[in-house]
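Below is our example:
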Amino acid sequence: RDLGVRYLKFDWVDDDCTVMLDKSGAVIDEVCAFIDEAKQGTGAVLIHSVEGQSRACCIMAGVLMKRHRWSLRRSLQFLELA
């Protein structure tokens, strides 16, 4: 039975050498497109990582910076309050 759940998964290791956001913006573009697709339906989006302290926050900061043209500082301030 199809529950309508879709996944966008990245297999990143949580260490200092992992590159999550590239200069081309391909990852953030892919994440934003995924979010847009969910918003067009009745869907919701959950962005998470195992610890929820760095990888998910990094992606969310990138999305906020792209969507709202916020600075990194503004994006992180918003996330701290969320």
In short: The radius of gyration is 13 Å. The longest helix spans residues 26-40. The chain has a mean pLDDT of 89. The chain has three helices and no strands.
